[in-house]
Write a structure and sequence with these properties.
44 strands; Jelly Rolls; five-stranded antiparallel β-sheet; 504 residues; ten-stranded antiparallel β-sheet; mainly beta
């Protein structure tokens, strides 16, 4: 038998928005999210877990300032990390020192950047007495990378593009982008460089050219076909990145990068557009440590169509402890991940791998249902959209929630909040067949019903506020949930004046 009633439907959801009061959000927008993400169907999911890549930590537990998997050839590759003053290769599950005689300065704020230059790993950390390094073969040691006749002894931001190795030299105000020959990545002519007006803060391809970023602009290097003057340089934009490791190119050729006021997207021709307005204001962006933003980093997670931006959340937070998640196909912010402090990242073997801060470990993320055998808290809060109008008081009756069916019963908490509502908590087991409903629930053309793939549960509501919010929360080990949507049932009972405020 169908149950007909007045109600408002939350979900499927499109995005999360911290910058707008919950009462002003549409019902398909979440007001808060933590350790959960929205999938392409608009369902709310507990984020995957993570695990140690190698169980044992490096001696002295240094920060792992670079991670990656180098492909030397079609048949040869190896996983590496840089930590403290050492370069390590993974040899059958053991970190093996490949530093040899190379001197590496241990400095947590001088993060390494690496590139695959035609089968040879090139790495830099931008420290004046540290030359670029090269790693040419698995089971081999690293060595100093040559810079030809350029006169450059220290460099940063290595980039392999257009069959050339590119560096930004650390002298002359870091304004020079040097390029190698096309036949030898260690051959640099004394005059083979391009110079910008300001310090170069990032370098990455965009569409068919190389973008050189300053904080106040972006220059494009375009191939000319002329061997004597191989590139023309044009100023293409009036703002660029402040953090070289946040400069990411998505699968469509667009660049995304961090500035002090947010995250921007640039397609190469139009002005860069800010895309992080959902995090503006006192509820998120104002709580970042602005002095540490230059050390933020980002990385692709192509298996999920995502880019993770790691930021220092907390005005006194020195290292990157929050990741905000952008789905570049949906073009929406779909998650916020917390609980882990990370310092470096790379995507390989279809998983994001991240270096730990001050623990001597590398982690595989997006795997399993726990954080290295420990539980984590996941939660998300809906909008507080008025179901009729802001002046109408309603009596809240119950909410019906649709979850993906679980193999076992999961203990899940549902919180009801709202102006004038004393928070009510309901806990029930997702997947417990004794709680499954036999009746269906319809509002307009939307119907929630029990099935073999969905579990439906009712939560009794209370209060007379014009708005009501729902928060889903789970802190139990190995209990991921997926929420498809919920419907909140009410009965209008009169009018009252309410202040517009967000409820969290």
């Amino acid at each position: 038998m169908a149950i007909q009633a007045d109600g408002i439907q939350y979900g499927p959801w499109q995005t999360v928005n911290y910058s707008v009061p919950a009462i002003d959000l549409a019902p398909n927008v979440l007001s808060r999210i933590e350790n959960m993400y929205l999938d392409n169907a608009g369902s709310l999911n507990t984020r995957p877990g993570m695990a140690k890549y190698i169980s044992g930590a490096l001696s002295g537990t240094p920060s792992v300032v670079a991670v990656g998997k180098q492909r030397f050839s079609a048949s040869s590759s190896a996983v590496f990390i840089i930590a403290g003053d050492k370069f390590f290769e993974d040899v059958s599950g053991t970190w093996t020192d490949r530093t040899a005689s190379i001197s590496i300065t241990d400095h947590v704020d001088k993060y390494w950047m690496t590139t695959n230059a035609g089968g040879t790993l090139i790495g830099t950390n931008g420290i004046g007495n540290n030359a670029p390094i090269k790693w040419a073969a698995a089971a081999g040691n690293i060595a100093a990378a040559g810079m030809g006749s350029s006169g450059v002894t220290s460099a940063d931001m290595p980039m392999f593009w257009d069959n050339r190795l590119w560096y930004v030299s650390t002298n002359q105000g870091e304004r020079l982008a040097h390029y190698s020959s096309t036949t030898n990545i260690e051959s640099f002519g004394a005059n083979d460089y391009y110079i910008t007006d300001e310090k170069i803060t990032g370098a990455a391809p965009v569409k068919s050219f190389l973008g050189l970023h300053n904080e106040n602009g972006i220059y494009g290097l375009f191939p000319t076909g002329n061997a004597d003057i191989p590139y023309s340089m044009q100023r293409r934009a009036d703002r660029g990145t402040i953090a070289r490791r946040t400069l990411v190119t998505d699968e469509f050729g667009n660049q995304l990068f961090l500035r002090r006021d947010g995250i921007y997207e640039w397609g190469g021709s139009e002005p860069p557009q800010k895309i992080s307005g959902n995090f503006d204001g006192s509820e998120f962006w104002d709580n970042l440590n602005k002095d540490r933003l230059i050390y933020s980093f980002a990385h692709l997670v192509t298996s999920a169509d995502q880019i993770w931006f790691w930021l220092p959340y907390g005005v006194n937070q020195n290292y990157m402890n929050y990741a905000i998640v952008w789905n570049y196909k949906l073009r929406q912010w779909v998650g916020v991940y917390t609980g882990n402090t990370r310092i470096s990242a790379a995507y390989f073997d279809d998983l994001p791998h991240l270096g730990g801060y001050d623990d001597g470990l590398m982690y595989k993320h997006n795997t399993g249902t726990n954080d290295n055998s420990s539980a984590f808290t996941s939660k998300a809060t809906t909008a507080a959209t008025p179901p009729v109008n802001i002046a109408t008081r309603v009596r809240w009756l119950y909410a019906r929630h649709e979850f993906n069916a679980a193999d076992v019963a999961y203990d899940t908490s549902v919180y009801q909040t709202g102006p004038g509502i004393i928070t009510k908590v309901d806990r029930f087991n997702v997947g417990d067949p004794t709680h499954a409903l036999e009746s269906e629930f319809t509002i307009g053309v939307s119907t929630i019903r029990s099935s073999t793939t969905a579990f439906v549960n009712d939560t009794d509501l209370h209060g007379y506020s014009p708005v009501s919010q729902i928060r889903y929360e789970n802190s139990n080990l190995d209990q991921p949930i997926t929420v498809r949507r919920s419907m909140l049932m009410y009965k209008p009972i009169g009018n009252e004046t309410v202040r517009k405020l967000g409820v969290h």
